[in-house]
Specification:
The chain contains three helices and five strands; from the N terminus they run ββββααβα. It is α+β, with helices and mostly antiparallel strands. The protein has a single domain, classed as GIY-YIG endonuclease (3-Layer(aba) Sandwich). This is Excinuclease UvrABC nuclease subunit. InterPro entries: GIY-YIG_endonuc_sf.
C-alpha cells in the first residue's frame, strides 16, 4: 500500500515523500531524488534516522551502506521522492531537513551533537 508523509525543514519548507516498497526496490525509477530512513514511533508517526540525496534513487537505495545501521536503530521504512533540478537543489533539501531533525545517522549538517 502506498502512502505519503510530509517533513518540514528548518526553513519551514515542506517536502512530500512516498513510501518505498522494500520488497520491490527494482521498481524504483532511475531518477534523482531525496530519501529518508524512518523509525516508527507510534500509529502513523515516524522519526527520521537518516536523510540523503542521490543522482539515482534506484542505484543508491538498492544497496545503501547506512541501511543496516538504520535497521539496527529501528528503521522499518524508506521514503523518497523525485527532486527536480540540479544536485544543488537536492543538497539544499537534505541540509534543510538534517538541520531541523538532526537524525542520528547523519554526520554532516547537524545543528546538535
Amino acid at each position: 500500500m502506498s502512502w505519503t508523509i510530509n517533513f518540514s525543514g528548518l526553513s519551514n519548507v515542506s517536502y512530500k515523500y512516498w513510501n518505498v516498497d522494500l520488497a520491490r526496490m527494482d521498481l524504483l525509477l532511475d531518477q534523482p531524488g531525496n530519501y529518508a530512513f524512518l523509525k516508527p514511533t507510534g500509529p502513523k508517526t515516524w522519526t527520521p534516522l537518516y536523510f540523503g540525496q542521490a543522482d539515482s534513487l534506484r542505484n543508491r537505495l538498492s544497496n545503501h551502506e547506512r541501511w543496516s545501521d538504520a535497521v539496527r536503530a529501528g528503521a522499518t521504512v524508506i521514503v523518497a521522492h523525485a527532486t527536480q533540478g540540479a544536485e544543488s537543489v537536492r543538497l539544499s533539501e537534505e541540509r534543510d531537513l538534517i538541520a531541523k531533525w538532526n537524525p542520528p545517522l547523519n554526520v554532516h549538517h547537524r545543528t546538535t551533537g
